[in-house]
Amino acid sequence: MNQHDPDRITVYSDYVCPFCYLGRESLRRYLDTRDDELEIDWHPFDLRSGKRNPDGSIDNSVDDGKDDDYYEQAKQNVRRLQEKYDVEMTLDIATDVDSLPAQVASYYVKQHYPYETWLEFDSSIFESLWKRGEDIGDEALLVDLADDVGIDGDEIRAALSDEALREEVRARFTEAQQHGVTGVPTFAYDGYAARGAVPPEHLERLVEGT
Questions:
Q1: Number of domains the chain is built from
Q2: Domain that residue 99 falls in
Q3: pLDDT beneath 50: ranges in the chain
């Protein structure tokens, strides 16, 4: 997928995907077992790309093939993994939340701040949605989350209004698809990949080949 860096695991994800949140908990557990640091090289992925209007808004009338039975099965799988990983979650599904603003803000932070700052901001977005049920598509919320990790809110406001940056993020979505990513979360390392909220031991095999 990407040029291999032994100190990084590539993660394709969308903040509104509950399995991405659960998968990150699995990854955290695996990373806690390691002696050597392994950074997360996050790549944004837009699950709603096929339903977006030219202005970026979501057209909910577009049929994406996901009916009530699909969402009910997804909720059951989320609850099963939530119990397995002992993760606090307020929501099972976030179909009414637009993650594009959060992905743009996170992408900006990843490009301009140290890894640790980005990771803290990234984690706060996930927790804001899945633990507290907040709307991560709201600019004011993203500004507050950025401020909490030491980022000037004006930078986030500027990033969210920067159409060139949005186009760059959209290009990353297309690039991910061109690399064979069809769903999230997808974890990639050294030419191999694992899709879904796989358990920590699966991630260990992916990275360490054991």
A1: 1
A2: 8-208
A3: 1-2
